Amino acid sequence: MRELIDERRLLEARRLLGSARWDARSVADHLGFTDPANFGRFFRDRTGLTPAAFAARDTTTHP
Which of 22, 59, 61, 63 could link 16 by a cystine bridge, Cβ 3.0 to 4.6 Å? Predict the structure, then answer.
């Protein structure tokens, strides 16, 4: 069950950081992380990128 929740949180984080252009702190708060650093580790462990790097990459691939 925890894995399913984490997958959903990651999907939402990608959407918000990408097309919605939210900053990492706002995404962390929206997804219920008590500390933005915890969100950063969560995101990096699953994607290999920091939230900022993901957002920058998405910006360059989707003008």
Answer: 22
pLDDT by 10s per residue, the chain, length 63: 999 999 999 999 999 999 889 999 999 999 999 999 999 999 999 999 999 999 998 665 555
40: Cβ contacts below 8 Å, ≥ 6 apart: 24, 28, 50, 51
* Amino acid identity, position 55: A
CA distance 43 to 63: 23
* C-beta separation of 23 from 15 below 8 A: no
